[in-house]
Amino acid sequence: MNHASLFQSHELAQARILEPEHLLLPQGPVSGHAVLIEEGRFSDIGTVEEIASRHPGLPRLSLPGHLLMPGFVDAHHHVTQSYGKSLVYGEPSEIFRRVWVPLESTLNARHLYASSKLSALEALRGGFTTVCDAGTRSSEDLDAIVQATTDVGLRCVLGLICNDKHSAVLLDAEPIVARAQAHLQQWEHHALISPSLAISIPEAASDAMLHRIYSMSEEAGRVFQTHANEHLVAVERSLNAHGRRPIEHLAHIGALGSASLLAHATLVTPSEVRLLADLNAAVSYNPVASAWKGNAVAPAEAMRVQGIRLGMGTDGTRSDAFRMMDYGEAAQRFAFGMMVGDSSCGAGWTWLDMATRGGAEVVGLGTQTGQIRVGAQADFLVLDLQVPEMTPSWDLPWELVRIAARDQIRAVVVQGKLRLWEGQPVDWDPLPLLEEVRELARHAVAQSDIRKLHAPSTEHLARRAAQEKALA
User: Fold this and answer.
1) Bridge-partner residues for 36, per DSSP?
2) Is the pTM here over 0.85, yes or no?
3) Beta strands of 324-440 (E only): which ranges?
4) Ranges for the Amidohydrolase-related domain (predicted)?
5) Strand 169-170 to 165-166 pairing
6) Fewer Cβ neighbours under 10 Å: the N or C end of the chain?
């Protein structure tokens, strides 16, 4: 069925009351309900009859065959790495040392704007209305990132990297701390940007800096980000240097607590899981990154049961929220569920909740977004359910995790404003950006001291052809 005649983009943008066939509320999907949007927020929710009687005369739009659901939250992203994600396929661990540090270090303000705008557009296309950026290694100011994400209309938790170690050299702490304080103050009241402080990995900062940046984040009510227990070699380096694993060391020096958002945490012992729970630290579970990089899989379901706060992140792999949830459930099943006969593995609602409400909570925006409730920001998706893959429907949360796809997203709305319609921006043309990125990326990669250990697919095919010819 062609749904183009059901409603148009201008109708959605102008309607104050939306009446979808299904509405995804915190308690699950419901039918026969409507929402009222005022000043960029959900101001009323109820049955269609209740909303109509309480607000007569307001513009209404019926959305038969559609689901209105919260926008997804990417709890761990790298928005300035969009130039190079195809460079890391097949690479072994710690690609940041060979690819990301060399590439990001060359990026100027123009690069930051273009790469971030590309990432922001892809995020919206994948159903994300919020991303949490872990920080760039570019020495440029972050204004270009703010401008890019704001121009696209994406909500962004913007990390500032505060490392004070460069190779074996310890840098002067005070300029770094001053910049961190300025960052927290500069974006404190921005409509779409929330500031965050970050240390790339614990070993990239002194213990004093780790403690200080964590404390600044906690005092400001902002999120402190770091990558922890992601790679075996990093765990071993921490043991050699401190006699403690990275998460243990963060706790020991007072840099782990309710303000912490740890990316990955794939290599964790039972005692570290307990430590994370006891200190109320949060984790971004990044299942696609585990699959693409070949890293271990974080025991997300076990963490959840132990009370650890969890969101889900792409780690800049592919900004597709449905693919992220599917990987998230499947990774738990393959890594942990199958060996013990767990056929549910958290059930579909777990991963759907983790990718929306849970993600918003761990990035510090739990009171603003991630749910459809009165007072929350109107960040939502309109999803077409009238597709063969989801017909018939018996358990919508499970189906959203395993079956739904981003091409079903009709509309993406952030802060009550329509940002994307059928995969395309409503107020700007993306084609010039794509052309610019192709040129800028070629130049940036050529100027970077990138060291790949895995040859491109075309080279592998050429080698195989040569071997077959030699054996003929």
Assistant:
1) 17, 44
2) yes
3) 380-384, 409-414, 417-421, 424-425
4) 68-418
5) antiparallel
6) C
